[in-house]
Amino acid sequence: MKKKFLAALLVLLFVFSLAGCAGTSESPQDQATTGTDAIDPAGEITFNAGTYTAEAPGMNGPIKVEVTVSDSSIETIAVLTSSETAGLGDVAMDSLTNDIIHHQSIGIDAITGATLTSTGFLTAVEQALVEAGGDLEALKTAVARENEGQIVELEADVVVIGTGGAGTSAAVTAAENGAKVIVLEKAAVAGGTTAMGGGFFAADSAQARALGHEPVDTDYIFEKWMDEMDWLADATLVKQFLELSHTTADWMEARGIEFQKTKAAVQQSHAEGTNGYHKYNDHTKTSAQLTAMLDKIAADHGATIYYETPAIQLMTDSRQVTGVIASAKDGSTLHISAKSVVIATGGFVGNADMVTEALKGVQVNASGYNSNVGDGIQMAVEAGAATRGLSAMVTHTFAVAGGDAVEGDYEFMERYQATNSVAYMPIIPWINASGVRFANEDIVYDRALSGNAVMSQGNYAYFLYNETLLNLLETQGARAAGMLDKIAMGPMPEITPMDFGWNKLTEMVDQMVAAGQVVKADTLEALAEQLNMNPRQLAETMKKYNEDAAKGVDTLYGKDGSHMYAMTSGPYYAFKVSVNNLGTVGGIRINSNFEVVMDEPEKGYSTTVTNLYAAGSDAAGLYSDHYAHTIEGAAQGWAYNSGRLAGARAAENALNITINLFEQ
Q1: Torsion angles phi and psi, residue 526, rounded to 5
Q2: Quick one: 569 exposed, middle or buried, by C-beta within 10 A (0-12, 13-18, 19+)?
Q3: CA 480, CA 647: separation in Å to the nearest integer?
Q4: Bridge-based pairing state of the strands 608-614 and 333-343
Q5: How far apart are CA 521 and CA 476, in angstroms?
Q6: Which of 233, 221, 222, 244 is nearest to 169 (CA)?
Q7: Lesser CB count within 10 Å: N end or C end of the chain?
């Protein structure tokens, strides 16, 4: 069975929790699950009573459903097989099941944040109902929403748009400091990109101290960070982020986020003295924990949380923001007057055109939370805001062409090694489309650096193997080929087995070759011709590489000599490798108070869009034109810290008070 394992891994698991307004929660089990209260939109739908099965492709593989109908209604829907993301896809299908049975219609909207799963599920149900003799046109009649066309007027001190780490932290901070808060989330669940991450940076925590760790020297980190950014980052923001990170981990833990301080850096490349990585105990629960934080401010401070309610426009008067217009799930339009608005919609990783434009034409794979399409950034720009650092992306992992071509009953890690781990080997040469080696491949131990290196060559690069090396990996493991240290990936402690064979590796690679995705040739010249590369250039590149490998010295880029594995004979294999974009980290220009500023460089960006703030991936300035590799967990750490700071500044503005988070 063909399975989209790369997509399954990169779209890390969410915990899906449906919640209503005012912080009250309603699970799918609480909704109608039988046809008793069903609404028949067409009035005359009939079926051939019985049970029917159908299958359609979902996000990670086929979704097979079983649908039972009477002669006049849809009775039950059961998912028989699915490899959809636990905690997201499965609960999305539960929610859709309830809606279909309640409305007796498949003319319902997909669940935002689980669009591919929703589409696959609805297609499978549609096929089953057609087989049951249902009238497809009648079944697909759009379900009218309860309050379609109504305008609802609301008021708040602070409106927060988005419920990832940044938005949730902003909302909690504002509410706990006395603000009346309304939170808008276009998805059906809190979490966003934050729920896809493995952990975050914090300079200090009770857990770190329990391990005997001294606080990370954030002055040292600041110097390294600004050096890496060539001082094109906003020092005032970097400094605040690092200083507040001394307290944010404990703040999060006190509010239910569960994590553990790591004893050492996960990625070996990170320098001594920079380890502030706090790893989630179970990243599949982050979404539920963020939801719980929002539920608590609803219960304790009267906050109102709207899910499946996207903000569509900022309300403005001259150069000041006066509120937000949003489209509610029930069909009504919310006009929310507010004293402060915080944009925290997660960037624009899911907007391929916007990403490609920011990268000057280079295309990368959108592997983050693809519902983040830049709507918050666009709303700010429409209000006159400046942008900054749009090319900064978390290009953090690789995709190997041909992985989807592998079919067969393989264990997960067997398949992963053949279709992904082959891209994380420092012992192979990386070749660009011209046939030139372009990097010290040891940077593969740092996902940010290696992603940047490949992206610098265009849309892809080729990673070269020969048959001898593949066989060696299959029979003995990576250490036998000279690799000195394993590579970890998220929750997987070793994706490049060092001391045991990569079972069935060549068998799966042969499938990728047969599919035309991995290129195989007996000679380098023949390989170059298949790759539309200058044969002489590739031959010269590999001649130099093999000469250095024989001496154990990389005279070109200084790679560890043990990793210079010679490839002097064929057959040769070229794996086409592209870069996965886990998120964007450039966006709206803000000042040191997290206020959005007008697009007026001639005024030194001193004029603010009054009452408007930004945080997380929407707020630019932490980076120059690329993601930092100075510390692990920077993006997630920024989400929580910037959210706290933006929430505090927004509450100060709304309530005319002073909040000093650095002294709390």
Answers
A1: -65, -35
A2: exposed
A3: 53
A4: parallel
A5: 24
A6: 244
A7: N
- Taking the C-alpha atoms of residue 410 and residue 355, their distance in angstroms, rounded to an integer, is 35
User: In this structure, what token pair is assigned to residue 37?
Assistant: 């209260």
The pLDDT value recorded for residue 267 is: 65
How many C-alpha atoms does 503 have within 13 Å on its Cβ side? 7
Q: Are 528 and 544 in contact (CB under 8 A)?
A: no
Q: Which amino acid is at 402?
A: G
List the one residue out of 454, 372, 403 whose CA is nearest residue 639: 372
Helix (H), strand (E) at residue 95: helix 89-103
- Please tell me the distance from the alpha carbon of residue 463 to that of residue 419, in angstroms, as a whole number: 13
11 neighbors 367 (Cβ within 8 angstroms): yes
Cα separation, 398 vs 206, whole angstroms = 35
Strands (E), 535-604: 572-584, 587-589, 595-597
DSSP 188-225: SSS-GGGGG-SEEE-S--HHHHHTTPPPP-HHHHHHHH
DSSP 385: B
SS3 content of the chain, % helix, strand, coil (to 5): 35, 20, 45
Place of tokens 């706290």: 644
Rounded to an integer, what distance in angstroms lies between the CA atom of residue 248 and that of residue 203?
A: 9
Q: Which amino acid is at 500?
A: F
- Buried residues in 387-418 as b, exposed as e (16+ CB within 10 A): ebbbbbbbbbbbbbbbbbbbeeebeebbbbbb
Strand partners, 202: none
- pLDDT for the residue numbered 257: 97
- Are 279 and 491 spatial neighbours (Cβ–Cβ below 8 Å)? no
How far is the C-alpha of 238 from the C-alpha of 152, rounded, in Å?
40
Strands 619-620 and 365-366: unpaired
Q: What is the pTM of this model?
A: 0.87
User: Rounded distance, CA 284 to CA 12, Å?
Assistant: 7
Q: Is the dihedral of CA 431, 432, 436, 438 positive or negative?
A: negative
Per the listing, tokens 């372009």 go with 438
User: How many CA atoms lie less than 13 Å away from 628 in the CB half-sphere?
Assistant: 30
Contact 63, 126 (CB under 8 A): no
Beta partners for residue 324, in sequence order: 314, 336
Check residue 508 and give left, alpha or beta (phi > 0: left; psi -120 to 50: alpha).
alpha
Task: List Cβ neighbours of 361 (8 Å cut-off, separation of 6 or more).
Answer: none
Nearest to 482 by CA among 540, 396, 566: 566
Distances (CA, A) of 279 to 261, 266, 297, 346: 6, 9, 25, 21
Instruction: Burial-class residue 371 by CB neighbours within 10 Å (0-12, 13-18, 19+).
Output: buried
- Cβ proximity of 218 and 242 under 8 Å: yes
Please tell me the distance from the alpha carbon of residue 125 to that of residue 54, in angstroms, as a whole number.
7
| Three-state secondary structure call for residue 325 | strand
- In this structure, the strands spanning 572-584 and 461-466 are antiparallel
Residue 323 near residue 594, CB atoms below 8 Å:
no
Q: Mean pLDDT by 10-residue block, N- to C-terminus, for the chain (664 residues)?
A: 40 29 33 34 78 92 95 96 77 89 91 85 96 93 86 98 98 98 93 90 96 95 95 98 98 97 72 84 90 97 96 95 96 97 97 96 90 96 97 94 94 96 98 98 93 96 98 98 92 92 98 98 98 97 98 97 97 98 96 98 96 98 90 94 98 98 91
Report CA 436 to chain centroid distance, whole Å: 32
